[in-house]
Amino acid sequence: MKPFIYITRKLPEAVVAPLIKNFEVEMWEREDAPVPRDILLKKAEKASALLTMLSDKVDRELLQDASQLKVVANLAVGFDNIDLEAAKEKGVTITNTPDVLTETTADLTFALLMATARRIVEADRYIKEGKWKSWSPLLLAGMDIHHKTIGIVGMGSIGEAVARRAKGFNMEVLYHNRSRKSEVEETLGVRYVSFNDLLAQSDFVLVLAPLNEETQGMFQEDQFTKMKETAIFINAARGAIVNEAALEQALKRGDIAGAGLDVFETEPINEDHPLLQLDQVVAIPHIGSSSKDTRHDMMSLCVENIQAVLNGDNPKTAVK
Question: Which of 278, 277, 295, 279 lies closest to 287 in space, CA to CA?
């Protein structure tokens, strides 16, 4: 009997063809909606492998009844949807998709920064709503990006890629990280500072840190009040790192000038969310790595990891 693989979203047939050739494969029928929890639990009970999304909670409840499960391949660099301790206890290998999405996510992050600073979305809406009647000296005047100071919270591979882009704009790059990276400082010309100094000195504060016990709720009212009133806040990491109510109040009070958000505490975000009512907020639906090339590479890496584990080999990108 062939090992059973369950894939929690509809993926292109060409991508999963190598799995179909050698294993019994079943896919959730929808690309645009998550598999219901009860179905996922039922499929996991007989699965040797799961190919999951960030929206799929692989917790102790799921793992305890998944007696055949050998590997969970998560289609993301993050894995905060997975209980790593429970997986380790059950001997289940967890893999993710680092590296292949680094440059694409850095592109999107910097694009979000630029769109927020230069009020691109607001300007697009302005002209499409027929509001552009004449030219004026300060029409939709935004904030310069070049020669400004950018503070990166979380100097992983994506943080380094964003720093390289910032240097192309002649920006001063500050960073705060759990551990100092002397080699990165030397090669990229970035400067390590304390978290509070980063908040106080930066014109742009970018969150690119992973979600963990240390970073959850890292940004509260106190952090926003320490930032410049002209500063722009960008979150392209995880929504739970930020207290959204505190961010909303900081924007309304003028503690900071704007925010660009690719992630939210609850996803999908509701269209009535208070943050979406603010012109100085640019909000996009968690599309950091969403280019066709990169998403295809991520899917292929998941497939390769599953094949490796089920064939008794080491996966390419196991989560340690």
Answer: 295
Token pair in block for residue 243 = 């207290």
101, 96, 97: which is closest to 84 by C-alpha? 96
Beta bridge partners of 174: 151, 191
**Measured between alpha carbons, how far is 123 from 262 in angstroms, rounded to an integer?**
19
**Tokens in use for 259?**
């925010």
Question: Is 146 in the active site?
Answer: no
Q: Which of 244, 286, 295, 304 is catalytic?
A: 286
DSSP label at 262?
A: S
Name the E strands within the chain: 4-7, 24-27, 49-52, 71-74, 93-95, 149-153, 172-176, 191-192, 204-207, 232-235, 258-261, 281-283
pLDDT at 63: 98
Is the link from the previous residue into 268 a cis peptide, with omega within 30 of 0? yes
Exactly one of 26, 31, 89, 267 is catalytic; name it: 267
Q: Give the whole-angstrom CA distance, residue 40 versus residue 79.
A: 17
267 has catalytic annotation: yes
**Could you confirm whether 30 is annotated as catalytic?**
no
Percent of the chain exceeding pLDDT 70 equals 100
- Pair type for strands 191-192 and 172-176: parallel
Task: Out of 9, 165, 238, 295, pick the active-site residue.
Answer: 238
Rounded CA gap, 314 and 167, in Å?
Answer: 38
127 is written with which tokens? 């002209």
Helices (H) and strands (E) in the chain, counts: 12, 12
Task: Fill in the DSSP letter of residue 23.
Answer: S
* Type and span of the H or E element at 43: helix 37-44
User: Is the model's pLDDT at 1 over the cut of 90?
Assistant: no
Q: What is the pLDDT of residues 282-293, one digit of tens each?
A: 999 999 999 999
- Supply the pTM of this predicted model: 0.92
Q: Where are the alpha helices (DSSP H) in 65-137?
A: 84-90, 102-117, 120-128
Q: What is the pLDDT of residues 86-100, one digit of tens each?
A: 999 999 999 999 999
